[in-house]
């Protein structure tokens, strides 16, 4: 057949994430180098908070020891309860509201933040039982939380976030700065 063989369509088809979600990024959360978060925004306004591939938890073969959604004595993200079509009762989050604290086996602790304003719809309880999901599938089964921005704010929530291209520029500048002799 002239050396032309049909390409495997699974290799060229975009993933569900790439097809239905727009990736947004927040770099160096709270001024902490490389603590990058990724927000997957669906066309229906839902936003899924995940770790960006550059986050220290996903680097250097780290392992997760524990994940804690208990933010303070009076606030646990696990006690969040939403009901009804308008998702009443969900905790309201600001841009820098902590979602959880992740402790690695080397005892380093990272706080994961919401990055956007909105109502907390759910936290991923699966990562409590299987913390390795955070490392193995951070953009899918290892997500941290789902947030619904207010309708009137859904267009403006991305103003403080970086697009994929902008994020890649920040990461490449970081790499260039690290490779510079001091």
UniProtKB/TrEMBL annotation:
SUPFAM superfamilies in the record: Single hybrid motif
GO MF, any single term: actin monomer binding
Localization of this protein: Cell projection, Dendrite; Cell projection, Growth cone; Cell projection, Lamellipodium; Nucleus speckle
GO biological process: dendrite morphogenesis; regulation of actin filament polymerization; regulation of filopodium assembly
Major localisation: other
GO cellular component, one term: nuclear speck
Coiled coil region boundaries: none
One Pfam family linked to the record: GCV_H
Keyword DNA repair recorded: no
Keyword annotations from UniProtKB, A to Z: Cell projection, Nucleus
Domain of life per record: Eukaryota
Keyword Nucleus attributed: yes
PANTHER family reported for this sequence: PROTEIN ABITRAM (PTHR13651:SF0)
Protein family: Belongs to the ABITRAM family.
Protein's name in the database: Protein Abitram
Provenance organism: Betta splendens (Siamese fighting fish)
Gene designation: abitram
């Amino acid at each position: 057949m002239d050396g032309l063989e049909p390409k495997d369509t699974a290799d060229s088809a975009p993933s569900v994430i790439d097809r239905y979600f727009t990736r947004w990024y927040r770099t160096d959360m709270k001024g902490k180098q490389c603590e990058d978060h990724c927000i997957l925004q669906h066309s229906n306004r839902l936003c899924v908070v995940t770790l960006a591939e550059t986050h220290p938890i996903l680097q250097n073969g780290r392992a997760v020891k524990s994940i804690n959604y208990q933010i303070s004595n009076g606030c646990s993200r696990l006690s969040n309860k939403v009901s009804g079509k308008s998702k009443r009762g969900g905790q309201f989050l600001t841009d820098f509201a902590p979602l959880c604290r992740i402790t690695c086996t080397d005892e380093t602790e990272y706080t994961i933040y919401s990055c956007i304003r909105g109502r907390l719809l759910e936290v991923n309880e699966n990562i409590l039982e299987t913390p390795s999901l955070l490392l193995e599938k951070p953009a899918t089964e290892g997500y941290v939380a789902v947030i619904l921005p207010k309708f009137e704010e859904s267009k403006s929530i991305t103003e403080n976030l970086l697009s994929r291209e902008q994020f890649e520029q920040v990461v490449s500048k970081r790499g260039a700065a690290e490779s510079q002799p001091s």
